[in-house]
């Protein structure tokens, strides 16, 4: 999902990672859980700084084993992490 240009142009100072998602229609969500679910269903790839990976290592390992990104995205947003989101 990522190529070399994604990382060359990445703003390491302002973002904790890159989130690539499928383009989806904009909806009005009634809860944040609905938003997390919709976002996690559209994730193509997640790249993050090593410090972010180490902070959420167990959740990242779950995703590497095939789990949904829902819990990881929820923790990212709850903790105030900022990602550069790219729609494809």
Key structural traits:
88 residues; alpha+beta; three-stranded mixed beta sheet; 43% helix; globular
Describe the structure.
- By secondary structure, the protein is of the alpha+beta class.
- It contains five helices and three strands.
- Strands 2-1-3 form a three-stranded mixed sheet.
- Helix 2 crosses helix 5 (70-78).
- It is globular and about 35 Å long.
- The chain starts with a helix and ends with a strand.
- The relative contact order is 0.27.
- The mean pLDDT is 90.
User: What is the global morphology?
Assistant: globular
Largest sheet: 3 strands, mixed
Low-confidence sequence ranges: none
Our estimate of the beta-strand percent is 15-25%
In summary, what is this structure?
With 88 residues, the chain is α+β, with helices and mostly antiparallel strands.
Write the layout of secondary structure elements.
Elements: H1 4-8, E1 17-21, H2 32-41, E2 43-48, H3 50-55, H4 57-64, H5 70-78, E3 83-87
Parallel strand pairs: 1-3
Antiparallel strand pairs: 1-2
Helix pairs in contact: 2-5
